[in-house]
Amino acid sequence: MRKVLLVDDEPFILQGLKAVIDWNSEGFEVVRSCANGREAYEYLKETKVDVILADIKMPEMTGIELLRRIREEGISDAFFIILTGFKDFTYIQTAMRYDCMEYMLKPVEKTELTGVLRKIAKESVRRDEEEESRQHMQQAFLARNLMALLFGKFDSANTDYVKNHLHLSDEIRYIDIEMSEYADSVEELEEGEMRGRQREVFAAARDYLREEKDHCIFDVSHDEKSYDLGLVYCDYFAAKRNLGFNDFLEGLRDHIQKETGHDTNIFVGKSVSKIDAISKSYSTACMLKSLEAFRSRKNIYYYDDEASYDSGSVVILKDLIDALIRAISADDTAKIRAGVDEFYTELNRSEADETRRLNVNYFLFQLIHMASELDAELDQEEILRFIAEHSSEEGILRGSNVHMANFCCDYSRYLLQLKKNVSGGVLLEIEKEIRDNYAENLTLRDLGKKYFVNSSYLGQMFQKKYGVSFKDYLTSYRIRRAEEMLTSTDMRIAEIAEKVGYRDSDYFLKKFIEANGCTPSKYRKNHT
Description:
By secondary structure, the chain is an alpha/beta fold. The chain folds into 4 domains: 127 residues, Response regulator (Rossmann fold); 137 residues, Alpha-Beta Plaits, CATH 3.30.70; 107 residues; 103 residues, Homeodomain-like (Arc Repressor Mutant, subunit A, Orthogonal Bundle). The protein contains 23 helices and 10 strands.
């Protein structure tokens, strides 16, 4: 219901305005009546309304003066309707200058007022749609700048935009929010259903954050199987609610569960002192998420807790692990296998599962840090994915030293290949894949797996070199092959479509018309 404020110094006029139409049936509600402009002005400073009907001549403050002040002071952008018993052009000019929607003569006729209200209703819908669109665009642009900072690929323009649009603090963390309830059954659910649940969680998180809702980002991860949210957390979030940090996060989880019925896991990255360094916090949250299987099950994981080791209660085989890391870095197979044997010999002396778990934790953390130190261009998410997919809990924590040695050797070779691919040589292989297999279902994700490069990063490399996206490049190549077949063979169009990789003839037709401005049949006729 749109809220209406009535302003007139004559009580019987106010009563008449309330009774002249059925406000509720038109979608409006009269929330207040004021006897003069001054009273209305004070009310509007505290309360938002959608429509104001005000007489011109009133004691203390006229309707025109009320309109001028609320516009100049930015107090209200409500639709304003002037009511008067005199048709004075000077008043009309002044009223229109301050965005007055209508000028109505007393006594107000039912049909005339109803018509104005319906006009307001339509204009209000248009305004709401424009504002929603503006907010969506601003939110999307802010998220894009934030993700540039998270991924460590940003410049001063990204940093300045984020600083100008978010209230930041001296202590900042990246927090990953994942739906856990359906983690094992994502493959069985429709993409649209999972995306819908993700949006529900996003809306609930923004509702909990209130004024800080724009710190929450939708769908940060590159992983197509992950339906996550990101939160750039500042230390004042909890303080302003008189909560501790842990209580704030527990409250967030509880609110999401209550509002959506979906359970979540939260991964808290390490604290950084400025937004420029948020990528470091992001990478640590990713580590927690990727290595979740090696930890005791929790609702909230804190990097500070998981990465710290109490040598007084648990023996960490630091020297052995560090020596093994150096062997992996040097790609020395003999030293890797010898180091793994020694590590397992010492590890098996302990019967405590927690000792074994924390040592494996420490080892995997060192693998990730080693990769990030080797080359700043290496994609940490890709490295994390490799570790998560190849270092199962059964294989490393409960498995044999043979499995561990094979994993370490594979990881060493993987890093060498990854460094080679980052230099750009992989793009030549991708180009050859398109030439040789353009009719197959080629995807960046599959090619990224094949060549050990994160699919999103591979897409950025491809766009930079060729000036178009991988998908557009592949489409263009397929259409060129189709053009050749149209002019050099008598094959049916549906057959050509399938030959170049389109199982759906209608979709092929659409892409062909987009590329050539005519149908395949007309193209064949014009070129043969």
